[in-house]
Amino acid sequence: MLSKNLKYAYYPGCVAQGACRELYLSTQSLTKALGIELIELKKAACCGSGTFKEDSQLLEDTVNARNIALAESLDLPLLTHCSTCQGVIGHVDERLKECQSTNPDYLNKVNGLLVKEGCSPYRGSTEVKHLLYALVTDYGLEEISQRVTKKLSGLKCAAFYGCYLLRAQKSMFYDDPFQPEAMENVFRAVGATPVYYRGRTQCCGWPLSSYATNESFQMAGNHIQEALNNGADCIVTPCPLCHLNLDSRQPEVEKVIRQKLDLPILHLPQLIALALGVSPKELGLERHIVSTKPILEKLGF
């Protein structure tokens, strides 16, 4: 079994503490079941989900340098379960690490603003890592497989990576940004069957939803329909914003595409925790807009 103790500075983000509370609950349940310790960064700020830089790159960098510095003060990696947060904070971390050698004056400006507000300066001494990659690279698929008490045999899972997790940063150390396999490998580790389809690495449409709603819902509908056509019992996503567009808005999506869908959308930690024997209620599976009952019935819960 696992010989080392894994510990992270936990950045839950905004959506998991609000509209997708079940993601927060299931992450806590999963990491507890695996023996992973999370130190929640309760003083962390919203990453901005890519909107801060529309007004000011300095604003995005300073806010997220502070978030990273909170993890650095604990000498821990920053862990998030939100692909959007990973993309934004990870990209800031990448950019500021480059500035240490290429543009120290800019980094000094960022740190000057932090120190002025009584915050610790950014040092570039840690890393930003999504829960998916912490599980795959730090914990290990074999270790996860050994912890499985209820194999998800017969469950056909379609991954929906979204765009921020794969391509927001210049370097992707853990997976191929265009042909990823990390989630599919997790599915195999818990006994489920991966379903491949074209839209799994594309945008869910969420960023368009506030000003091009029909186009956003058409994108989401196309992805869900494609997953269904390929035999999926559910879509599994590592991003709560993708979850909102694919699950919470699925009834509206159906009206736009004039097609009944009814495909359950799971958060990644919910799926894994089910295989570890955590109860559906503890994982908040009753909170979804699209009922998860067909999945639970198929698995014998």
UniProtKB/TrEMBL annotation:
Transmembrane segments: none
Every Cysteine-rich domain range: 8-89, 158-247
InterPro entries (alphabetical): Cys_rich_dom, HdrB/HdrD_reductase
Keywords, sorted A to Z: Oxidoreductase
Keyword field contains Oxidoreductase: yes
Gene Ontology MF annotations: oxidoreductase activity
Pfam families, A to Z: CCG
UniProt-recorded name of the protein: Heterodisulfide reductase
